[in-house]
Amino acid sequence: MSVAIGLTRPLAVRTLPVGDPGDLVAALPTAAPSAWIRRGEGLVGWGEAARTEVPPGPGRFAWAREWLSSVLADTDLADTGRAGMGPPGGKADDAWPPGVGPVAFGSFTFDPDRPGSVLVVPKVVLARRGGRAWLTTIGDPPELEESPPVEPGGISYGDGSLTAPEWEHAVARAVHAIRSGRLEKTVLARDLMAVAENPIDARPLLSRLADRYPDCYTFSVAGLLGATPELLVRRVGSEIESLVLAGTTARGDGAADDVARGAALIASAKDRHEHDCAVSSVREALAPLCADLNVPDEPELLALANVQHLATFVTGKLADGASVLDVVAAMHPTAAVGGTPTATALDVIRELEGMDRAGYAGPVGWIDSRGDGEWGIALRCGIIEGNKARLFAGCGIMGDSDPAAELAEAQAKLRVMRYALEG
Ligand SMILES: C=C(O[C@@H]1C=C(C(=O)O)C=C[C@H]1O)C(=O)O
């Protein structure tokens, strides 16, 4: 557990309304910011009031929540409600929009037993939501050397843990395990190494992702950066929402081909089965937490710039005061990134993928002081370190999966981060 040194305690938190900042990424003064943006709205942060590495283990989400409570106990929220962001009197109140006051951004590893899960409470958070914008500062403003964004320059690529043919072979083995009755679905991913000419500055990548994938959540948390279409859970008070994705096809070559591919995806027994596994896992995780849960019977199509997915939008009302992290703890890993049954699917992933997923396919997002927040599944992303990036993409594998088609799907998903790097 660590908090930034040199800060006077308790840390004064101030949230003030600001004029429309326009492009949130353009406001970022540093190369390694925190960000969560969709359709131009969201939160971006810089500086660190507190940061921790969450110890691995089954209790990691509970540990994270407690850490956050201890950080918040050390803050003075008295100024937060003033100046029009909440009711007069300045106390934390339900009238605040989510994301007002102190916010922690977080990334959790896919595998609970691996290190690398991180929570960061930025010193400055700029937010834009529903026609309002606000700036939260914690303690003294950070002493920053503002730097202009720098492009990564030329990029070269190399295989990650498995070459493309080795990965196809792993898919074939997973298909065999499914056909032999060991499990129903698993999800296999691969990694790709990228080396850039310059140290990788998150900002140009975030700008390109937010522009090209407006329906996705463009994120940056502790070096994990990407644009995921998959909302694990959003909590606003007792209301929760989740967008379950599984089942993928390419975009078409022209409008008619695009519609035909979408129709074929909706009609595909393999993809519908794959999708049902993911929806069932979400329903089973949420039902015990919810007084009300609405899961549509039929999926819809979600078209992104690179691929189209089967999508089910789930809504619910929490029965008690579970925070968004409690809900994340109950949901992760869904069968969209693990499989069915979960434990066997995770064994197969460990046996066949030959790599550590780190934050890929883990929960990524933010939580505020009331337990509201938004968490996605970290897909279409990469881990940035200096001038290197490790990119990830995976596919749901069923008994009738074709290894070559799954490889093509994984390549299409990798295009998101290749575009972020290369433009
Ligand atoms: C695993 C990934 O995506 C997941 C797998 C999908 C599929 O196989 O159809 C679709 C959406 C995601 O739930 C990924 O993008 O890496």
UniProtKB/TrEMBL annotation:
Q: What class of enzyme is it?
A: isomerase
Which InterPro entries is this protein grouped with?
ADC_synthase, Chorismate_C, IsoChor_synthase
Please list the coiled coil stretches: none
Task: Give any Pfam family that matches.
Answer: Chorismate_bind
This chain belongs to the protein called: isochorismate synthase
Superkingdom assignment: Bacteria
Annotated ranges, domain Chorismate-utilising enzyme C-terminal: 165-413
| E.C. code | 5.4.4.2
Keywords noted in UniProt: Isomerase
Q: Which family, according to the similarity comment?
A: Belongs to the isochorismate synthase family.
Which reactions are catalysed by this chain?
Answer: chorismate = isochorismate
Query: A GO molecular-function term, please?
Result: isochorismate synthase activity
